């Protein structure tokens, strides 16, 4: 078993923070499928370009996405290919969670 370090816990905390916002989670899931331009992501997710810019800046700051210059435009992709697999694994876990539990109206107590 691998020793857990502060680097590991910090990486998980950044991922948790990113996933705690629905728009950021949707951006990550979209980029899991393919790299994209911010304007295309904004249109696909139904948010303003300013909101998308802010969310991408946050995800860049967390080290989860990277910006790739393309002439006068910039496209985005996941910073690490392992992230796509991890998101896929987490989606499988989420599907097994009771939707009436652990949400804003949690009735598990």
Global structural class: mainly alpha
Q: State the shape.
A: globular
Output the radius of gyration.
15 Å
- CATH-derived topology of the domain at 22-93: Arc Repressor Mutant, subunit A
- How are helices and strands ordered from N to C? HHHHEEH
In DSSP terms (H or I, runs of 4 or more residues), the helix count works out at 5
Oligomer: single chain
**Major beta sheet, strand line-up:** 1-2
Name the poorly predicted regions. none
Structure characterization notes:
The protein has 109 residues and is mainly alpha-helical. It has a domain at 22-93: Arc Repressor Mutant, subunit A (Orthogonal Bundle), CATH 1.10.10.10. It has five helices and two strands. It has a two-stranded antiparallel ribbon with strand order 1-2. A hairpin with a 2-residue loop joins strand 1 and strand 2. The chain is globular. The protein starts with 5 loop residues before the first helix and ends in a 14-residue tail after the last helix. The mean pLDDT is 89.
